[in-house]
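Technical appendix A lists one of the benchmark inputs used to test multi-chain prediction within the project. The record comprises two sequence entries:
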Amino acid sequence: MTAQTCPLTRDILSRRVEASFRDPEGYVFIREGRVYRAIAPELAARLRRAEEIGLLGRLVAREWVVGSRFVREPQLLSFLEREHPGWHHFVEHDSLPLITYPYEWSVSMLADAAVLTLDLQIELAQAGFSLKDATPFNVQFVGTRPIFIDLGSLDVPSRFDVWYALGQFQRLFLYPLLLARYTHWDLRSYFLSNLNGRDPLFMVRVMGRLGRWRPALLLDVTLPWLLTEYSQSKPHTSQSPGSRISINREPMLWNLRRLRRKVLRLAGGYRPQGVWTDYTRTCSYTDRAEDAKREFVRSVLTHEKPKWVLDLGCNTGTYSELAAELGSCVIAADQDHDAIEMLYRRLRNTGSAIWPMVLDITNPSPGIGLNNKERQPFLERARADYVLALALIHHLIVTGNLSLDRIEQLLFDLSSQGVIVEFVPPADPMFRKLTQFRSDSFEHITLSAFRRTFSQRFSIVREFPVPDSERMLFWLRRKE
Amino acid sequence: MARVLLAYIDPGSGAILLQVLIAAVIGAIAFVGRIRDFVSSAVTRVFKRSRARGETPSEVAEADTPVPERKAA
């Protein structure tokens, strides 16, 4: 299955999309499982013009922009007009199988979303259009390919030497990449703590008195900061920069190409160094055990053919790739950013049906933004037919302090059909490694306790001892 | 007539001024480049003419000083 043909992870009900309130020129809503955008007359005129000159079709064909078409069918149009008083123009968008947010992306994912935004702006500027905003929330991933979703962003500006969204681009793309590259800030905390990103003043403070003069920061952090300080020290003038007219595109295009090179350099220069990226090399499996485990997972997935698989603690994605090869759509989640970064670098632009996500399942992404609803929590966006929890439960037990009951609850809630889970006993070398400085006892974590806990709401279809170890693989199916 | 539209997002004065600065620098570079092109084309023209007449450039310079053609620039 290719990423484009993946079904929705969850049924979407008729509702207005909560994130769609910032732009006064329209909003997105969902009706009978389909995605529409109500648009103002001026925006509709701009979109029609983009459609006429073939620009829109070209961008959709290149898979830069989500598939979109004007609603022209009279009956549907009259329904929509009645349901959305005051709006007369509607566009339908292709729906996306799964929504992820920048706080669940790795550095290269954010960089690729940035490059797409810049490429789009370059293309639009040459055709006489522009993007009025530049935020990673306007980009989604279809598998490992970024796609731009906010058609409402299309604008015709009065001047082409200045891109109004540049400040936002810096705050939401460039600064987090700079912080990740030079100070090892993680994207998760950057985006979760502030939906609008950080300003140049914040950046120069983080970088320190010396660091702010680093060449990579001069044009995008230090100079804008100095210019902001300068403009704030001058008395306010009524002359707005938006009132000037300029058709000279060269300065903007030069700047966009510079930013493109910079973004790619920043992401390329990031060196993944996570503990768990070495896992496949340092873990305790023998080749025989690894092969047997793989065969077990393969046989279950071949038999069950789940549409969606959630691979928890996917590490660098060996089993996610196996599931995708067998025809499933996969959410590959790991709390280790660098593991996801390695996975994404390997799979980027392959069209593979794997959605990499930086996600700690004991602390999944919350609902944030206005009313806590603007960006949905992970558990409301994603659900899988099958969950893979391979070499995971000892982390949940020791690091996450979860009891077997809670693990059972978690896996039950996440899966609609079943789970493949690997039981790791306290005597296992990897379990012991995690507990070497812990005083608490894990004697109650036994195979029989595991079977007892998991057989209440699941039926144990098959058990399979992993060779050369004391681990046990379980194929569990939810009881109806 | 192009519309006067300020974005519904905060553009950030630093980012706007930065771009005005970039536009000014690129404009200045282009301006210098045009002057250079004009001078070099004028010099080539002089050399071509002098070769056609079989004179040395210094004699041409004495005979007729080229008048800068504004339109050509």
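Chain A has a mean pLDDT of 92. The radius of gyration of chain A is 25 Å. Comparable benchmark entries are summarised in Table A2.
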